[in-house]
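I hope you will forgive my troubling you with a question about protein structure. Could you please explain, in whatever detail you think fit, how the structure tokens follow from the sequence? Thank you for your consideration; the sequence and its tokens are set out here.
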Amino acid sequence: MLVRITIPKSDTELSLWLDNANQVGEPGEYIDDVLARYEHCSTKNSIEHDYVMLLLQAAEQGYDDAVDELWALADAEYFESQGLEQLNRDEMIAARAEFTAKKYQLAHKAALVGGEQSLERLIKGYQQLDPATGGQNYMKALGYADFALLTTQNNDFYRKAVWFKQWLSQRMNYDELVQAQVFTESLLIEAAHGSD
């Protein structure tokens, strides 16, 4: 018969478990095994929570892969890592909006230094949501697509950016196209100043 060992999940539970184990006379090997497993699990949990913080730190430094992982991160996982699980509905909505804006900001930073994954996230993202307005922003999406065309050395990514540019251009009027061009020029200037 297989006996399933339940490992305590907190120091308080461990203390209660140890008191009970000593009262009922559990063998020392069994207690040592549970203590070793508890220690292993507590280390693992702290590493998992540190994972999101490490991801945020790497994204802050402009690492494209970290930004891409951050965009793929579930809101719930981010909230848990930040200790925000107990927020009420309105606070949760505000925290979600703040997290979304943070992802866009970090993607922008990585895109300016050549982060192609971040550029693609922004091109697609602004077609769905501009965190500043809450609506779509084809002008910014096209601006990032043009920026990609002017800066990438990757043929596959270049073809994607061409497709995005054509698709977006067909859905925009002349004034929006001019605004997108101005936005692209501002991105180029910002990228040039960042490399100084």
User: Anything to note?
Assistant: The chain has nine helices and no strands. The mean pLDDT is 86. Residues 28-60 form the longest helix (33 residues). The CA atoms of residues 57 and 66 lie 9 Å apart.
